[in-house]
Amino acid sequence: MNRHDRHANPGRRLRAGILTAALASGMGIGAPAVSARVMDSVGTQGIGRQSNDLTASEATRIRLATHRFRDVDEALDAGYEPMGGCMDMPGDGAVGQVYMNHALMEDGQVDPTKPEMLLYEMRHHGDLRLTGVGYHAVDDDQDATTDDDRPSLMGHPFDGPMMGHEPGMPIHYFLHAWVFKHNPSGDLAAENPRVSCDAAG
Predict the structure, then answer these.
(1) 54, 71, 74, 151: which could form a disulfide with 137 (CB 3.0–4.6 Å)?
(2) How big is the CA angle at 53 (ends 138 and 175), to the nearest 5 degrees?
(3) Using one digit for the tens of pLDDT, what is the confidence trace for 84-133?
(4) pTM for the model
(5) Among residues 199, 141, 131, which one has the least CA distance to residue 173?
(6) H/E element holding 27?
(7) How many helices and strands (H and E) does the chain possess?
(8) How far is residue 31's CA from residue 88's CA, in Å, rounded to a whole number?
């Protein structure tokens, strides 16, 4: 398998551990796009952040640490894998194509320079554009009705807790950071209205 083949069809397979709530709609393997509401799908309604934006220095820190993943082959070589199809939230924008790193997911750490997820948008000429990154943390008490173990990233609380999307996936928290494409809804919004799944088919 050559480097191009590894990501020529990122929607062709689905593994346990997809980290965004869009999969709660029951996406099938190989589906080019998924329609769901991230917040509605999991019953999570916002957490009252003081700001939905990163500071300039916070955004720069994340951007510098992940800039090389604009080349999706660099992401693949670093252990990120495409998960399912493009995640579209009608009326709110999209999350896009998620690439996930299982080793980072399982290390129990929240490190702004080592996101568990990379968020890409398929462009009309077929390549992937890095739009943001995502962070994931398992809910310690596995009780979706409590949030006293809510993690944060540089002082910004995660969204959640939310149920797992497949059998065996734990209740978890997540946070998206749109550091490579402006998000009018905020740097830390769950979805980006300027991201589209149109080119994904």
Answers:
(1) 151
(2) 15
(3) 889 888 788 899 999 999 999 999 999 999 999 999 999 988 899 999 99
(4) 0.79
(5) 141
(6) none
(7) 4, 9
(8) 12
